[in-house]
Amino acid sequence: MPLTDQQLDQLTLAEGALTLNHALDPSIDVNHVQASLELLADEAEHLLGSEPDMALRLEGLRRLFYHQWQFTGDFEQYFSSENVFIHHVLSRKKGIPVSLGAIFLYLCERLSLPVKPVGFPTQLLLRIDELEDTPVYLNPFDGERVSMRTLRGWLIGSQGPFAELEPSHLEVSDHPSIIGRWLAVAKSALLREEKYAMALRCSELALTFSPDDPYEIRDRGYIFQQLDCDRVAATDYEYFIEQCPDDPAAELLKMQVKVLNEEQPTLH
């Protein structure tokens, strides 16, 4: 069963993501993945748990995770669905900011390090409030610090030349918000790989949180169409057209609905 927002906030981000992963792929052995996370946490605690200085403990974990264990961002296949499934990230030691960040945060919690997730518009960041006078931000893709100048550059690259960095962009995010974005990334990757059955699970799960979201229903319609479920695809498209008549996609979908309805078999 999908978790509620309250339940997600009570889990670590990695545990919430693992629950999401299992909802998308029930063949995942959750206990095995949980044990793998615990092994990493045990080793980190054994090596660094007795270090009283928080800054040195954090630096030790950063070196352990990115250099000794060699977790790294997947530069070559960034959009691969493997990068959104925790068990694949643990076995490949490759991921994207949100999946690597979730594992790193799991270790930080074991080591009592005050590191929190930030759902920056372009990717997940890690925020440390007690290291210096002002917050320090790490990029979980490579474990390196990120300057305000770099963050402004990312924002402009994403939203255009007039985008401005706002304090709200750097606020700590709750787990449901991050898991929601994670789910969207997973759906996009699965669609790109034409794994439509699993992408449909993404869409159905997203709709448990926002049942009337016309854009999610539109996406579900596209997935149904790829699965040759033309009647339900047309119904989803019609809902989107009704809810968002001024959206540029609405006119295209009207033509698509007409084609889908014409393709329905005639019963005698």
From TrEMBL:
Q: Which Gene3D superfamilies match?
A: Tetratricopeptide repeat domain (1.25.40.10)
Q: Do you know which InterPro entries this protein is assigned to?
A: SirB1_N, TPR-like_helical_dom_sf
A matching Pfam family: TPR_9
- Protein SirB1 N-terminal domain boundaries: 32-183
Lineage: superkingdom: Bacteria
Per the record, the similarity remark reads: Belongs to the UPF0162 family.
Q: Which PANTHER family is this protein grouped with?
A: F-BOX ONLY PROTEIN 21, SI:DKEY-261L7.2
- Which protein, by its recorded name, is this? Tetratricopeptide repeat protein
Species this chain originates from: Salinivibrio costicola
